[in-house]
Write a structure and sequence with these properties.
The protein has 300 residues and is an all-alpha fold. It contains 10 helices and no strands.
Protein backbone atom coordinates (compact mmCIF):
# COMPACT_ATOMS: atom_id res chain seq x y z
CA UNK A 1 0.00 0.00 0.00
CA UNK A 2 1.01 3.58 -0.67
CA UNK A 3 -0.20 6.64 1.20
CA UNK A 4 -2.32 7.97 -1.64
CA UNK A 5 -3.80 4.63 -2.72
CA UNK A 6 -7.63 4.45 -2.64
CA UNK A 7 -8.53 2.35 0.38
CA UNK A 8 -10.96 0.00 -1.36
CA UNK A 9 -8.59 -1.29 -4.06
CA UNK A 10 -5.63 -1.23 -1.64
CA UNK A 11 -7.34 -3.49 0.87
CA UNK A 12 -8.70 -5.71 -1.89
CA UNK A 13 -5.12 -6.25 -3.09
CA UNK A 14 -3.93 -7.00 0.46
CA UNK A 15 -6.68 -9.57 0.92
CA UNK A 16 -5.99 -11.28 -2.39
CA UNK A 17 -2.24 -11.45 -1.76
CA UNK A 18 -2.77 -13.05 1.64
CA UNK A 19 -5.44 -15.43 0.34
CA UNK A 20 -3.01 -16.69 -2.31
CA UNK A 21 -0.46 -17.45 0.43
CA UNK A 22 -3.09 -18.98 2.68
CA UNK A 23 -4.30 -21.46 0.07
CA UNK A 24 -0.76 -22.76 -0.48
CA UNK A 25 -0.06 -22.99 3.23
CA UNK A 26 -3.34 -24.72 4.04
CA UNK A 27 -2.47 -27.44 1.53
CA UNK A 28 0.67 -28.14 3.54
CA UNK A 29 -1.21 -27.82 6.83
CA UNK A 30 -3.75 -30.45 5.73
CA UNK A 31 -0.84 -32.83 5.10
CA UNK A 32 0.35 -32.25 8.66
CA UNK A 33 3.41 -30.21 7.72
CA UNK A 34 4.49 -28.26 10.86
CA UNK A 35 5.81 -25.28 8.88
CA UNK A 36 2.60 -25.20 6.85
CA UNK A 37 0.49 -25.12 10.02
CA UNK A 38 2.57 -22.32 11.52
CA UNK A 39 2.63 -20.26 8.32
CA UNK A 40 -1.11 -20.72 7.75
CA UNK A 41 -1.84 -19.38 11.24
CA UNK A 42 0.42 -16.39 10.64
CA UNK A 43 -1.31 -15.58 7.35
CA UNK A 44 -4.73 -15.93 8.96
CA UNK A 45 -3.71 -13.46 11.65
CA UNK A 46 -2.57 -10.97 9.02
CA UNK A 47 -5.87 -11.35 7.20
CA UNK A 48 -7.78 -10.87 10.45
CA UNK A 49 -5.84 -7.66 11.04
CA UNK A 50 -6.77 -6.36 7.60
CA UNK A 51 -10.43 -7.21 8.12
CA UNK A 52 -10.67 -5.53 11.52
CA UNK A 53 -8.93 -2.40 10.23
CA UNK A 54 -11.44 -2.26 7.37
CA UNK A 55 -14.35 -2.80 9.76
CA UNK A 56 -13.12 0.07 11.95
CA UNK A 57 -13.10 2.29 8.87
CA UNK A 58 -16.71 1.19 8.17
CA UNK A 59 -15.75 -0.67 5.01
CA UNK A 60 -18.54 -3.27 4.82
CA UNK A 61 -18.25 -3.56 8.60
CA UNK A 62 -20.72 -6.42 9.12
CA UNK A 63 -19.29 -8.58 6.34
CA UNK A 64 -15.69 -7.92 7.35
CA UNK A 65 -16.33 -8.90 10.97
CA UNK A 66 -18.20 -12.03 9.82
CA UNK A 67 -15.17 -13.09 7.76
CA UNK A 68 -12.85 -12.25 10.65
CA UNK A 69 -14.86 -14.59 12.90
CA UNK A 70 -14.65 -17.38 10.33
CA UNK A 71 -10.88 -16.98 10.04
CA UNK A 72 -10.55 -16.94 13.83
CA UNK A 73 -12.24 -20.34 13.95
CA UNK A 74 -9.81 -21.73 11.36
CA UNK A 75 -6.90 -20.35 13.36
CA UNK A 76 -8.30 -22.03 16.49
CA UNK A 77 -8.58 -25.36 14.64
CA UNK A 78 -4.88 -25.15 13.73
CA UNK A 79 -3.76 -24.15 17.23
CA UNK A 80 -3.76 -27.64 18.77
CA UNK A 81 -1.55 -29.34 16.17
CA UNK A 82 0.76 -26.31 16.29
CA UNK A 83 1.02 -26.53 20.10
CA UNK A 84 1.69 -30.28 19.92
CA UNK A 85 4.47 -29.72 17.35
CA UNK A 86 6.11 -27.06 19.55
CA UNK A 87 5.99 -29.24 22.68
CA UNK A 88 7.33 -32.26 20.86
CA UNK A 89 10.22 -30.22 19.50
CA UNK A 90 11.05 -29.00 23.01
CA UNK A 91 11.08 -32.55 24.40
CA UNK A 92 13.35 -33.79 21.62
CA UNK A 93 15.70 -30.87 22.17
CA UNK A 94 15.84 -31.69 25.88
CA UNK A 95 16.56 -35.33 25.06
CA UNK A 96 19.52 -34.36 22.90
CA UNK A 97 20.79 -31.89 25.49
CA UNK A 98 20.56 -34.07 28.61
CA UNK A 99 20.35 -37.66 27.27
CA UNK A 100 17.55 -38.21 29.77
CA UNK A 101 15.01 -40.95 28.91
CA UNK A 102 12.02 -38.93 27.78
CA UNK A 103 10.84 -41.33 25.08
CA UNK A 104 7.56 -42.08 26.90
CA UNK A 105 6.74 -38.37 26.97
CA UNK A 106 7.73 -37.99 23.32
CA UNK A 107 5.46 -40.89 22.36
CA UNK A 108 2.51 -39.35 24.20
CA UNK A 109 3.08 -36.04 22.45
CA UNK A 110 3.39 -37.77 19.07
CA UNK A 111 0.01 -39.38 19.70
CA UNK A 112 -1.42 -36.04 20.75
CA UNK A 113 -0.04 -34.50 17.56
CA UNK A 114 -1.56 -37.22 15.34
CA UNK A 115 -4.98 -36.78 16.95
CA UNK A 116 -4.78 -33.01 16.65
CA UNK A 117 -3.89 -33.23 12.94
CA UNK A 118 -6.74 -35.63 12.27
CA UNK A 119 -9.20 -33.34 14.03
CA UNK A 120 -7.80 -30.32 12.18
CA UNK A 121 -8.27 -31.98 8.80
CA UNK A 122 -11.94 -32.54 9.62
CA UNK A 123 -12.30 -28.98 10.84
CA UNK A 124 -10.79 -27.55 7.66
CA UNK A 125 -13.38 -29.12 5.35
CA UNK A 126 -15.34 -25.87 5.11
CA UNK A 127 -12.35 -23.61 4.54
CA UNK A 128 -12.94 -23.33 0.77
CA UNK A 129 -16.29 -21.66 1.40
CA UNK A 130 -14.67 -19.17 3.78
CA UNK A 131 -12.02 -18.32 1.20
CA UNK A 132 -14.63 -18.00 -1.58
CA UNK A 133 -16.58 -15.50 0.50
CA UNK A 134 -13.42 -13.49 1.10
CA UNK A 135 -12.67 -13.42 -2.64
CA UNK A 136 -16.19 -12.12 -3.24
CA UNK A 137 -15.84 -9.43 -0.57
CA UNK A 138 -12.45 -8.28 -1.85
CA UNK A 139 -13.89 -8.02 -5.38
CA UNK A 140 -16.64 -5.76 -4.03
CA UNK A 141 -14.03 -3.62 -2.29
CA UNK A 142 -12.00 -3.10 -5.44
CA UNK A 143 -14.69 -0.85 -6.94
CA UNK A 144 -16.02 0.60 -3.70
CA UNK A 145 -15.40 3.71 -1.64
CA UNK A 146 -14.48 6.11 -4.41
CA UNK A 147 -16.83 8.84 -3.19
CA UNK A 148 -15.76 11.20 -0.43
CA UNK A 149 -19.33 11.38 0.95
CA UNK A 150 -20.97 8.75 3.10
CA UNK A 151 -23.63 6.85 1.09
CA UNK A 152 -25.88 6.88 4.19
CA UNK A 153 -25.39 10.56 5.02
CA UNK A 154 -24.06 12.82 2.24
CA UNK A 155 -23.15 15.53 4.76
CA UNK A 156 -20.49 13.26 6.25
CA UNK A 157 -17.08 12.59 4.71
CA UNK A 158 -15.48 9.14 4.60
CA UNK A 159 -11.77 8.31 4.22
CA UNK A 160 -10.72 7.71 0.66
CA UNK A 161 -6.93 7.33 0.88
CA UNK A 162 -4.72 5.10 2.99
CA UNK A 163 -3.09 8.17 4.57
CA UNK A 164 -6.47 9.19 6.00
CA UNK A 165 -6.80 6.09 8.17
CA UNK A 166 -3.31 4.98 9.22
CA UNK A 167 -3.11 7.18 12.32
CA UNK A 168 -6.40 5.99 13.82
CA UNK A 169 -5.76 2.34 12.97
CA UNK A 170 -2.30 2.24 14.52
CA UNK A 171 -2.97 4.38 17.57
CA UNK A 172 -6.04 2.30 18.40
CA UNK A 173 -3.77 -0.75 18.56
CA UNK A 174 -1.00 1.07 20.38
CA UNK A 175 -3.51 2.12 23.04
CA UNK A 176 -4.39 -1.56 23.51
CA UNK A 177 -0.69 -2.13 24.34
CA UNK A 178 -0.64 0.90 26.67
CA UNK A 179 -3.52 -0.59 28.66
CA UNK A 180 -0.95 -3.00 30.18
CA UNK A 181 1.28 -0.20 31.46
CA UNK A 182 1.00 -1.26 35.11
CA UNK A 183 1.29 -4.98 34.41
CA UNK A 184 4.65 -5.32 32.69
CA UNK A 185 6.27 -6.89 35.76
CA UNK A 186 3.46 -9.32 36.44
CA UNK A 187 4.61 -12.76 37.58
CA UNK A 188 1.77 -14.34 35.61
CA UNK A 189 3.08 -15.52 32.19
CA UNK A 190 -0.44 -15.32 30.76
CA UNK A 191 -0.52 -11.54 31.38
CA UNK A 192 2.73 -11.11 29.45
CA UNK A 193 1.33 -13.34 26.72
CA UNK A 194 -1.64 -10.97 26.34
CA UNK A 195 0.78 -8.04 26.04
CA UNK A 196 2.56 -9.99 23.33
CA UNK A 197 -0.73 -10.48 21.48
CA UNK A 198 -1.41 -6.74 21.44
CA UNK A 199 2.15 -6.03 20.25
CA UNK A 200 1.66 -8.55 17.46
CA UNK A 201 -1.59 -6.90 16.39
CA UNK A 202 0.11 -3.52 16.27
CA UNK A 203 3.03 -4.94 14.29
CA UNK A 204 0.77 -6.65 11.74
CA UNK A 205 -1.25 -3.46 11.28
CA UNK A 206 1.96 -1.49 10.64
CA UNK A 207 3.12 -4.09 8.13
CA UNK A 208 -0.32 -4.12 6.50
CA UNK A 209 0.18 -0.50 5.46
CA UNK A 210 3.48 -1.48 3.82
CA UNK A 211 5.08 1.14 1.62
CA UNK A 212 2.87 3.90 3.00
CA UNK A 213 5.14 3.71 6.08
CA UNK A 214 8.61 3.28 4.52
CA UNK A 215 10.57 3.82 7.75
CA UNK A 216 8.53 1.58 10.04
CA UNK A 217 11.27 -1.04 10.49
CA UNK A 218 12.67 0.82 13.50
CA UNK A 219 9.49 0.19 15.51
CA UNK A 220 8.59 -3.17 13.95
CA UNK A 221 11.90 -4.59 15.19
CA UNK A 222 11.03 -3.63 18.78
CA UNK A 223 7.63 -5.30 18.54
CA UNK A 224 9.07 -8.42 16.92
CA UNK A 225 11.62 -8.75 19.74
CA UNK A 226 8.80 -8.83 22.29
CA UNK A 227 6.93 -11.39 20.21
CA UNK A 228 9.94 -13.68 20.02
CA UNK A 229 10.99 -13.49 23.66
CA UNK A 230 7.56 -13.65 25.27
CA UNK A 231 6.51 -16.31 22.75
CA UNK A 232 9.34 -18.56 23.91
CA UNK A 233 8.37 -17.92 27.53
CA UNK A 234 4.77 -18.93 26.77
CA UNK A 235 5.89 -22.15 25.06
CA UNK A 236 7.91 -23.15 28.14
CA UNK A 237 4.97 -22.20 30.38
CA UNK A 238 2.60 -24.45 28.42
CA UNK A 239 5.12 -27.30 28.42
CA UNK A 240 5.66 -27.11 32.19
CA UNK A 241 1.91 -26.96 32.81
CA UNK A 242 0.98 -29.88 30.58
CA UNK A 243 3.73 -32.28 31.63
CA UNK A 244 3.30 -31.28 35.29
CA UNK A 245 -0.40 -32.05 35.02
CA UNK A 246 0.30 -35.44 33.43
CA UNK A 247 2.63 -36.29 36.32
CA UNK A 248 0.07 -35.13 38.89
CA UNK A 249 -2.77 -37.24 37.47
CA UNK A 250 -0.58 -40.32 36.90
CA UNK A 251 -0.49 -40.16 33.11
CA UNK A 252 3.28 -40.04 33.58
CA UNK A 253 5.09 -41.33 36.65
CA UNK A 254 7.04 -38.97 38.89
CA UNK A 255 10.42 -40.36 37.89
CA UNK A 256 13.41 -37.96 37.78
CA UNK A 257 13.47 -37.41 33.99
CA UNK A 258 9.92 -36.02 33.93
CA UNK A 259 10.35 -34.01 37.12
CA UNK A 260 13.62 -32.58 35.77
CA UNK A 261 11.88 -31.64 32.52
CA UNK A 262 9.16 -29.74 34.36
CA UNK A 263 11.71 -28.00 36.58
CA UNK A 264 13.79 -27.05 33.53
CA UNK A 265 10.77 -25.56 31.76
CA UNK A 266 9.74 -23.58 34.86
CA UNK A 267 13.27 -22.21 35.16
CA UNK A 268 13.16 -21.12 31.51
CA UNK A 269 9.84 -19.38 32.11
CA UNK A 270 11.22 -17.48 35.08
CA UNK A 271 14.42 -16.46 33.28
CA UNK A 272 12.52 -15.18 30.24
CA UNK A 273 9.88 -13.50 32.42
CA UNK A 274 12.56 -11.49 34.22
CA UNK A 275 14.11 -10.33 30.95
CA UNK A 276 10.81 -9.34 29.29
CA UNK A 277 9.79 -6.15 31.20
CA UNK A 278 12.55 -3.81 29.94
CA UNK A 279 11.68 -4.53 26.30
CA UNK A 280 7.95 -4.13 26.93
CA UNK A 281 8.46 -0.94 28.95
CA UNK A 282 10.52 0.51 26.10
CA UNK A 283 7.48 0.12 23.82
CA UNK A 284 5.26 1.76 26.45
CA UNK A 285 7.65 4.69 26.91
CA UNK A 286 7.13 8.18 25.37
CA UNK A 287 10.11 7.67 23.05
CA UNK A 288 8.39 4.77 21.27
CA UNK A 289 5.22 6.83 20.84
CA UNK A 290 7.30 9.67 19.41
CA UNK A 291 8.92 7.30 16.93
CA UNK A 292 5.51 5.90 15.96
CA UNK A 293 4.27 9.44 15.35
CA UNK A 294 7.40 10.24 13.33
CA UNK A 295 6.88 7.14 11.17
CA UNK A 296 3.25 8.08 10.55
CA UNK A 297 4.16 11.67 9.70
CA UNK A 298 7.10 10.59 7.51
CA UNK A 299 9.59 12.44 9.69
CA UNK A 300 11.99 9.46 9.86
Amino acid sequence: MRSQDPIGPAFATAIEENLAKLKKRLKLAKRGDPAGIHDARTTIRRLRTALTVMAEANLDRTEMLASEDELHEIERILSKPRAADVLLGMVRKQQRRTREPLSELAEKLEGRSRRARKKARRGLRGVKRVIARLHERSANLADAFVEERSPKNPTKAVPLRISQMTHSALFRRYEAVLAYEGLTRSRDPDVLHHIRTECRRLRYAIELFGRSLPNAKIIVDDLRAIQDRVGKMHDHHVAAGLVGKWVDVGKLDDSPPFVHFVDHEKAKVEALRRRAPPRIEAVLAPRFRQRLEAVLDHRL
